[in-house]
Design brief:
Blueprint: E1 2-4, E2 9-17, H1 23-30, E3 33-35, E4 38-49, H2 52-62, E5 66-68, H3 74-81, H4 94-104, E6 112-115, H5 128-131, H6 134-140, H7 142-153, E7 161-166, H8 175-187, E8 191-198, H9 199-203, E9 210-217, H10 237-241, H11 250-253, E10 262-263, H12 264-272, E11 300-301, E12 325-328, E13 343-345, E14 364-366, E15 379-381, E16 401-403, E17 418-419, E18 439-440, E19 451-452, E20 463-466, H13 469-475, H14 495-504, H15 508-526
Parallel strand pairs: 2-4, 2-6, 4-5, 6-7, 11-12, 13-14, 15-16, 17-18
Antiparallel strand pairs: 1-2, 3-4, 7-9, 8-9, 10-19, 12-20
């Protein structure tokens, strides 16, 4: 703990294991709570992760140091990778953790350990068979090994608070691990709460994100109960997307806002799936998949509903039941300016007046004021008598117009001409599509496997499209720019890897929610008071998850 007398602040110092991009740290750093004129905050000591790219992003986003360390035991490493470690690999010990932290924290033990271990082996997105494999059991073993590492590293001065976040299925697939952890923490004197929550509610996000949370407190340091954080309305995905640049606008949002290039048949499938439904809507279509992925695959998220969970498996359309596609109703803005050739009702406000021509923003109006002369702008059919000829100078004041069917004799013949693909092109002029042969009948209809960005308007008048990597990052609550002002472009070189890092991350807003709840307890405790919560607060667990002290596996 660090006390700053100049600002009257207390900094509770936290170490992050499996820190990833730093979402958990970002949220905790933003939390504040004032008690008796003193402000409590969390300070990041270090983030520890095996992924070097994630460590670089952690430092850029949080401003705190990171350490690239593999927390596998040697046995776990071999089971997961299927080979011996490379030369130079070293099994991390409690002493290594201790020396790192004391060096970065001026010789002090941390106040807390926050960790979000790999969840793939516990996740329902992995089959039972794969989850039970030696590889994923080794990955699951990082949960209890990491807690053992920090318990042993700081056993001379036990850490006040341990917080672990994971997927809800850890309570079933990982029941044995949780039983071991429970016994281990009790042996070190900790009180333990385990519960599930919706991170979307804790952070007021635009996605539904069910998660598991374990909180262990040393009652000698934190005697009070920790109460549940405040919940917020989960927003619709459209409320978020409306605040962002249009997909594909990489100039405004950076390269992660590229629209994924999908095969033509995938775009057609997306267009055929009604918003709110998934691949099963295609079962009677010629575009049926030919196999049965898990429910939720290819799901089209309605614009006015919350998103599915952003997962580390969200690497492409149809590959998981995570957030991947949205029914975007902003069709007018897809291919340029939204006001092109727009006709405004006479009873609605005008959009912004620009100096452009009508083809790029200047507007029409549906004027319902009938002119006093009935023949103004009147166009007479070629096969009917003319109205009375008046002295009007032009169509606007009475002179007549005619619908002349003799197109071939018109001096402007050739305008809007569509040229044949198998014929030589006409002379190239300075005209645009309105004047001259500036169009072609292109026979290259995409093959089913051709990749590209195709705009197909669905029957629901939406563009059912994949979410960009940037949009997934925003759904998770990352800032759109780094602290130095540059657009958010993560270090990993592929969108698949970037999406994995984004999906693995604890949303900063959710982290801020439970971090503030923790501060509300530990600040009074620090001042020697008991925190009683309020009449509307419940103790952290709503319905306590029972993990037995001993677990018999059949």
């Amino acid at each position: 703990m660090r006390i700053c007398k100049e600002t009257n602040e207390i900094f509770f110092e936290i170490v992050y294991l499996f820190s990833g991009l730093g979402g958990l740290a970002l949220g905790a750093q933003s939390a504040r709570h004032e008690y008796k004129g003193v402000t409590g905050r969390f300070r990041t000591v270090v983030g520890i992760d095996v992924d070097a790219d994630a460590c670089k992003d952690f430092e850029k986003l949080t401003g705190a140091p990171s350490a690239c360390m593999d927390l596998f035991s040697r046995e776990q490493y071999i089971a997961f990778h299927g080979k011996e470690p490379d030369e130079g690999w070293k099994e991390v010990t409690p002493q290594d953790i201790r020396e790192l932290v004391l060096r970065l924290n001026e010789g002090r033990n941390p106040d807390g350990i926050f960790l979000s271990p790999p969840c793939k082996g516990f996740s329902g997105l992995l089959s039972e068979e794969k989850a039970a494999s030696e590889k994923y059991q080794a990955l699951n073993g990082l949960v209890d090994r990491s807690i053992w590492l920090v318990m042993e590293a700081f056993k001379d001065d036990p850490i006040a608070l341990i917080l672990m976040e994971n997927v809800p299925r850890i309570t079933s697939r990982g029941a044995a691990k949780l039983s071991q952890i429970k016994n281990m923490l009790k042996s070190y004197g900790y009180e333990i709460n385990m519960d599930t929550h919706d991170a979307g509610e804790l952070g007021g996000l635009s996605q539904i994100r069910k998660r598991f949370l374990l909180i262990a407190r040393d009652p000698r340091r934190i005697p009070s109960f920790i109460y549940k954080p405040q919940r917020h309305r989960v927003k619709s995905i459209g409320e978020l997307l409306d605040t962002l640049p249009m997909p594909g606008d990489v100039e405004s949002a950076g390269e992660m806002h590229r629209i994924p290039r999908l095969q033509w048949n995938v775009w057609v499938r997306l267009a055929l799936i009604p918003p709110g439904e998934d691949w099963r809507a295609l079962k009677d279509s010629e575009y049926a998949l030919g196999h049965s992925p898990r429910s939720g695959s290819y799901k089209i998220i309605p614009y006015d509903e919350p998103s599915n969970t952003v997962t580390s498996f969200t690497s492409g359309i149809g590959q998981s039941n995570g957030a991947s596609a949205v029914a975007d109703p902003r069709i007018d803005n897809v291919c340029g300016y939204g006001n092109k050739y727009r006709v405004i009702r006479s009873n609605e406000p005008c959009t912004t007046v620009t100096g452009s021509r009508i083809g790029s923003g200047a507007q029409f109006i549906a004027d319902d004021r009938i002119p006093r002369f009935a023949n103004l702008y009147r166009v007479i059919r070629m096969d009917e008598p003319s109205a009375t000829v008046t002295g009007g100078a032009g169509p606007s004041n009475g002179a007549l117009s005619v619908a002349d069917t003799r197109i071939r004799k018109w001096s402007g013949a050739g305008n809007y001409e569509v040229q044949r693909w198998d014929m030589p092109g006409k002379c190239v002029t300075c005209g645009d599509i309105h004047s001259g042969a500036s169009a072609v009948g292109d026979p290259r209809i995409p093959d089913s496997k051709d990749k590209g960005v195709y705009v197909i308007v669905s029957e629901s008048a939406t563009w059912n499209r994949p979410l960009t990597t940037f949009e997934l990052a925003m759904l998770q609550g990352l800032p759109s720019r780094f602290p130095d002002g540059s657009p958010l472009v993560l270090t990993a070189k592929t969108d698949t890897k970037r999406r994995e890092h984004i999906g693995n991350m604890v949303p900063p807003a959710a982290s801020a929610g439970f971090s503030k709840a923790i501060l509300e307890t530990i600040m009074p405790n620090y001042m020697g008071d008991w925190y009683w919560g309020s009449s509307e607060d419940g103790i952290w667990v709503n319905k306590k998850i029972h993990i037995p002290d001993t677990l018999i596996l059949m």
